[in-house]
Amino acid sequence: MNVYPAQRCVGDPAHLCKRERIITLIKYLVRRALGWLLMIVVATNITYFLAWGFLDPRSNYVGRRPPLTEEQIVNTLAPRNLSDTVPLIERWWTWLTGILLRWDWGVSPTGGSVNEQVAYRMWVSAELVLGATILTTVLGIALGVYTASRQYKLADRIGQATSIITMNIPIVVAAFAIVLLAIGLNDATGVRIFYVTGNASRGVEGFFPVLIDVLQHLTLPTIALVVIGYAGIHFLQRSLLLDNIGADYVRTARAKGLTKQQAIRKHALRTSLIPVATQVAFTIPAIFTGAVLTETIFAWNGMGKYFIETITKNDIHGTVAVAAFGAVLTAIGAILADVAVVVLDPRVRVS
Amino acid sequence: MTSEMIDPTVEASTAAPGPETTRVATRRLSKWTLYSRRYARNRGAVAGLIIFALLVLFAIIGPLIARYDHVELDFLALSTGPTAEHWFGTNNAGNDLFAQVAVGLQRSLMIAVSVSVGVTIVSALVGTAAAYFGGWTERITLLVIHFMMVIPSFLILAMISNKSGGDWRVIALIMIFVIGWYFPARVIWTLALSLREREYVSAARYMGVRGFRIVLRHLLPNIGSLLVINFTLGVVNAVVAETGLSFLGFGVKIPDVSLGALIGAGSSSLITSPWLFYFPAAALTLLTVSMALVADGLRDALDPTSAAGGRA
Amino acid sequence: MSNVLSVRDLAVSFASEAGRVDAVRGVSFDLEAGRTLGIVGESGSGKSVTSLAIMGLLDENAKVTGSIMYEGKELLGMTDKQLSVIRGNGMSMVFQDPLTSLTPVFTIGDQLIEALTVHRSLSKKDAWNRSVELLKLVGITEPERRMKSFPHEFSGGMRQRVVIAIAMANDPKLIICDEPTTALDVTIQAQILDLIEKAQQETGAAVIMITHDMGVVARTADDVMVMYAGKPVEQAPVHELFHKTRMPYSIGLLGAIPRVDKAEKEPLTPIKGNPPLLINLPDACPFADRCPIVMDACRTREPELLPVATGSGDLHRAACIRAHEIEDGGLLGGIPVYPVREVPESPLAKLPREERPITLEVKNLTKTFPLLKGAFLKRKVGEVHAIKGVSFDVREGETMAIVGESGSGKTTTLLQIMDMVKQTDGDIVIAGTSVNDIHSHKVERQLRRDIQIVFQDPMGALDPRMTVADIISEPLFAIGTPKEEAHRRVDELMDLVGLNPAHSDRFPQAFSGGQRQRIGIARALSTNPKIVVLDEPVSALDVSIQAGVINLLDELKAKLGLSYLFVAHDLSVVRHIADRVAVMYLGDFVEHGDVDDVFENPQHPYTKALLSAIPVPDPDIERTRQRVVFDAETMSTRAVTA
After folding, report:
1. Is B181 helix (H, G, I), strand (E, B) or coil?
2. Which of A250, A257, A346 sits opposite C84 (nearest CB)?
3. Interchain contact, C445 vs B208, CB within 8 Å
4. Which of C117, C152, C156, C453 fits C533 for a cystine, CB–CB 3.0-4.6 Å?
């Protein structure tokens, strides 16, 4: 990120300076967003070509009984812009103009609209990812702060041991372990407390029943994601806070008359939050990858599961849409990280 | 991040080891003794090393002492739990799970280690060269790295390995070059940047030493400890990535097995045949956790001043 | 007057990897209101640890014993909460590094207000007003606006003023200053010392001034305590200490300091060896291994700090069993305690300057840094003129020094020369070859044999992963010397700089700072250069070690006929070692000439102010000097009212 050390607003009273600063901040963010947009466009296009290199829509129609003729296959695929009898450049152009002019991301080899699928699945994934991110962050930061001020004592050691184990459990293992536990719990109590498949049940109405139903479905996958995710933030927050606790300015704060706890809470914590905020923003794409596996295991029809389906079904347009989605998430994460730094750290100002 | 370590038999001072409180050590303490002593003090790291060693042993010896070959089908024992015959039980096709886990562990290890070696080498060279040569080399390299971070690489990886037909060597190669090298390269670049500003690098330049020689002689050895730690962490990452891939069916394919594939195959019968989950999952978790403990121990032993406190 | 602070038998120890470290081993003193105690010592002497122990800011694993009585209350044994009531209120502290002492994410105003409100309940308005008042008091212009600034918007000197304002906020009775000026430029240093004096006058507080600079002690202290190896080895009023020194270490310390006001070149007295490790110290005098007048009795028991009669009637204590034998002027039985060294005479010195060959000539050297804007494609929006066209030459056997404060461009000048940057409107001629004539790497490498560099930081200049032999032979291999010859040369060079060639297979970490600097010098000499460039080579070293390296450089110059180009900010060192000096200010040479001329008869106001700011290690001279300050706008000096 190209930012320069803060320059003083020369001569002006403070409030005008603030307005000036906000304007430059917005200009900076817009510039960054455009930069990312460019990268996303390039990445999506490259994925398009790669997808054609490795996926074959024809395979959906191969081996049918009765077998289809070549003509029938081409007639099915061509209108969907998925026939390899058309030159690749032409196919690409049709696809690109479809997006730019009509925001139409194409159809799958079997005719389903990609836009429809994505529109529906986006929110399913968002439900999962958002909840997991917030809980991971809160838990990680809280643990980090708690253990840092009790360094080397029992609480810290237990926290570290637990975290290093949970951090390294593959999501697949964690998810299934939770499923087994939940089923055990369900059986033991005889009540279906937690649902292990799907993101919602059919036929549930009314505000509270729907809410409870959502929670019943949401709990397990969220727990899986949080359990393996919080430790990264925990360690980061802890080590940053420890570094800052030993810093000179904390010593100055104590020399002023603050107790050790007060100095840590007020001075060290605030400073250490800055890098943690950036790190959290960057974990958003990572959680998406984790969500891919989680959605598969818990049978949630989100973008993650779509990812797998599009590859197994050789759905070129779908695959590219997922790629674009992932790229957008990364961009959002990076921009949020930039915002966090500029807002929290007065040393950094954009010119 | 400084990788300078003061010999403890020589260092005395407390808050600020001043320049005059050391003297030439009368007995030279080898670096390696120092590292191993520091490592040994960390009980978790020692435990991790032992567990890892046992797992490797199991991966090597397991297939040799197994009663059944991992592709053999025992029609008389379909979906049975652990017995004296089949120590880990069987799956619904009759494969002996013990043999499968042993071979699967072997495969997962091979992929993970080779990927990590490749990633470490590539990222080290790219990162240090970009930092040292600066200018356009640096800018283009960074552009490529940031770009790779935008592409959803797991997707590309899944696509390509699906087509590759399950040959683990191809998968490993893709993992290195598609998803593996750019994040460590960025970390190394940051460290190498700070090293570039060190005076001994300028000194070498002023002595007339050639650029590439400086990179090899001065920069690379000083990031050595970071490379070792990156390597061990890379193994963990590679195991997790390959597991995910194989679980989804994109990675290693039958008849080749890996731990991820085993879990994937056993997932549909999770409740009826939980042993199909327990054993591969246990092996997998032990592998990743032990390696992570080793990485942690190495970080404390080699770089006690390092700020990072975990895989952040 | 009653004592503000009474310390008895203070001892601090830490656990470390190598054993228990006894950082402080028995400090006792009394301090009355309005008086200043100067605690002097080099690194590792325990002076900082003492101050942190008094404030209760040591790490939790530090064991503190003894007694610290502040205004009649015993501080040791108080909880953090109880101590925090006194800290910042009755006792306050000014720390060494102003760049890291303030929290970067809070405004100056917030931090000042916090210092006030943590001890008294003030309304927001009152706290604000008092803070503005404090900022005015410490000399910060436009205080209302500055209240909303962040620390990084201030220079080091200004930040230190803020720290002093915070220390003064609640009218403390005791102000502890731990090396408050070490990280600052000389002229700023003088201003900060003035400010601390002012603060003391305003509040009537007692001050503890911790420093390694004897000049600062001479200026500020009423009583002095010299610390060595965790213990005070001499305690006396300031005049006594400087003129009637009775402990060999203190004598050595005073003798090792180069003087900015003395014209004849007296050789500096280095103290051989290094301070001892503070682990498992034997019951002997800790200075015994380095003392020139050591006796067997010195090693049987550690000497106590006992009163010694000096004929003046003041209370003077020294920890030396031979203290009563030592006379004024550092003499024992008429002979100097430290053997006088021969000043090496170079045969070249007899030849007048103009007749000696030129080793380095610089004509109209310029350097501008562009100010760039833009994220990816940067465009130039302005320039910074770091060097504005300097010219000078260095003759064989001569030492040329460039002095200036930070930002003057002196280090940039050095680096430009070392980078052999082709000049558009000027030239750099090294041993007869112009850099504008370099058209191939081969020629450049040839030229690099003749000019080598020694860096400031002994730790950063040597690659920690290479052995000493590798380090010294690196330039030899770069010019293609065969292996055996290189090895022979390494041994030869180590001998030359005073190191044991048997240690050449060790790593830099095993050596002390002074020894590492010698390794750097050996490396620079390996290709037999004609001129050696030195970037502040002794500023990172302790005073007693510094003297040894300075003497070494003198010797080598005489023996090998070298020329030196020196960059330094410490004018006393420059006076001692240089033949010619140039004073640099904002990229220009404001004064340039023979060193005695410039120091005795400075012409430019900046030079006058610079010389005026340096504290002289003699309390009689220092306290009666008339000082001047440089005014950048009018480019003239004005007197400082004492």
Report:
1. coil
2. A257
3. yes
4. C453
For chain B, the C-alpha Rg in angstroms (whole number) is 23
Cα–Cα distance, A351 to A278 (Å, whole number): 20
Q: Is residue C254 part of a domain?
A: no
Interchain CB distance below 8 Å, A168 and B163: no
- Residue span of the structural domain in which C633 resides: 602-642
- List alpha helices for A4-68, DSSP H: 14-54
Domain for residue C416, yes or no? no
Question: Between C80, C148, C166, which is nearest A256 by CB?
Answer: C166
Q: Do the chains contact at B203 and C43, CB–CB below 8 Å? A: no
Instruction: Retrieve residue C559's tokens.
Output: 């023996």
In chain B, % of residues over pLDDT 90: 4
Question: How would DSSP label each residue in B209-230?
Answer: --HHHHIIIIIHHHTHHHHHHH
Looking at residue C164, its pLDDT comes to: 93
**Number of independent structural domains in chain C:** 2
Does C641 reside within a domain? yes
Please tell me the total number of residues recorded for chain B in this structure.
312
- Report how far residue A302's alpha carbon sits from residue A329's, in angstroms, rounded to the nearest whole number: 15
Which of chain B's residues have a Cβ under 8 Å away from the Cβ of A289? 152, 154, 244
CA A303 to CA A256: how far, in whole Å? 54
Contact B147 A50 (CB under 8 A): no
For residue C369, name the pLDDT band (cuts at 50, 70, 90).
confident
| Residue whose structure tokens are 């120590």 | B87
Question: Per the domain annotation, does B4 fall within a domain?
Answer: no
Q: What is the pLDDT of residues A47-63, one digit of tens each?
A: 888 888 888 888 877 77
pLDDT surpassing 60 at residue B23: no
CB contact (8 A) between residue A252 and residue C118: no
Here the CATH number for the domain that contains residue B179 is 1.10.3720.10
Q: What is the dihedral of CA C532, C536, C542, C547, to 10 degrees?
A: 40
Asked whether residue C630 is assigned to any structural domain, the reply reads yes
- The Cα–Cα gap between A43 and A39 comes to 6
Among C203, C221, C239, residue at a domain's last position: C221
Task: Provide, as residue numbers in chain C, all residues whose Cβ is less than 8 Å from the Cβ of A267.
Answer: 103, 106
| ipTM of the complex as predicted | 0.81
Lookup result for tokens 């049709």: A94
Pairs of CB atoms within 8 A across B/C: 141
The answer to whether residue B183 sits within a structural domain is yes
Helices B31-40 and B43-65 cross at an angle (nearest 10°) of 90
Q: Answer whether residue B26 is part of any domain.
A: no
Amino acid at A276: V
Identify which of A46, A169, A232 has the shortest CB distance to residue B310: A232
Query: Of C480, B64, C153, C290, which is closest to residue A348 (Cα–Cα)?
Result: C153
- Counting the structural domains of chain B, the total is 1
| Tens-digit pLDDT profile for residues C568-608 | 888 888 888 889 999 998 888 999 999 888 998 889 888 88
According to the model, what pLDDT value does residue B305 have?
54
pLDDT tens-digit profile of C404-459?
Answer: 888 788 888 888 888 888 888 888 888 888 888 888 888 888 888 889 999 988 88
Instruction: Residue B72: count other Cβ atoms within 10 Å of its Cβ.
Output: 12
B30 DSSP assignment: P
Q: For position C24, which CATH number holds?
A: 3.40.50.300
In a domain, B217, yes or no: yes
Of B74-83, B196-205, B299-308, C570-579, least confident by mean pLDDT is: B299-308
Which amino acid does the sequence have at C175? I
Is the Cβ of A257 closer than 8 Å to some Cβ of chain C? Answer: yes
Question: A305 near A313, Cβ under 8 Å?
Answer: no
Q: Which among C183, C200, C221 is the end of a domain?
A: C221
- Domain with B232, as residue range(s), is 34-70+83-311
| Residues A43, B150: C-beta atoms closer than 8 Å | yes
CA dihedral A286, A291, A294, A299 (to 10 degrees): -170
Q: For residues C440 and C256, what is the distance between their CA atoms, to the nearest angstrom? A: 46
